[in-house]
Amino acid sequence: PALAGWRLLPANPWVGQQRAACRTSAVCTPGASAAPWPGMAAAPAAAQPRWASLVEAEWYADLAQRTRGTRFVDMLSVPAPTEPLAEFPPLRELPPVAEPARPPAPSASERPSLSEDDWRTISRSVLGMAVAELKQMRWPGWDNPFAVRLSPSYAERMLPAYYSRVGAANVRDLLGVEERVNLWPGQAVEAPWAGAPVPRAYRSVDEADADIRLIAANAATFNGSGHPVAELGRKLLAKWEGWLPGLRRSWQQHEQDAVARLARQ
User: Fold this and answer.
1) Is this structure's pTM higher than 0.85?
2) What gap in Å lies between CA 20 and CA 64, rounded to an integer?
3) Smallest Cα–Cα separation from 229: which of 157, 147, 165, 163?
4) What is the largest CA-CA distance in the chain?
């Protein structure tokens, strides 16, 4: 039948009390037909619920007939399975997925003729963040002694005999490394001072690694291995060495991408 006029009734306190009493008894004994639930005594006329419609009255009557003599808690429980659960075969372990092998980096003799602008792009993309992080390192009382430009005029004024002690060809600093890393394609560059070589982009991570190691070595050579600046140089080198494996992988990938672009042209 159509459910026209169906609505939910407000909670009846008498019905709630009778249901609670039915839960505690073993079996709900059939009671008077006037009761809305089997086993409940007929409620006073004022407490008996009013059916909102004929459909609602028929629903309660059908429910009372089907659940007569049944414990209330049994109606809420799920019957136990009569047959044993099927046994599923154990899960098959899948073999580990191996990473695709990357082709080895081209050797110096097989290296394609990448232009200076190509090397500048690779160098800036791979090494730019790492060198900037080294430059931002600070130590109490020393700031960062490696983030200064060690030009001959500066060394003569602040570090006498520095060039003669470490060798003019071995002078390195983070500003010089940063300059080589951050060269832009098409940018015109000049020697930082008279007699110095014109900066060019790095051709590999190993070239940059050699410069960072010279910075740490020069700190110990000029100041002595027990000097605080020499210890700072070792800390700088330790941080750089932690990045080397990832930098080498990134450089190899960027170089391969540049070679592929040249092959498509």
Assistant:
1) no
2) 16
3) 147
4) 116
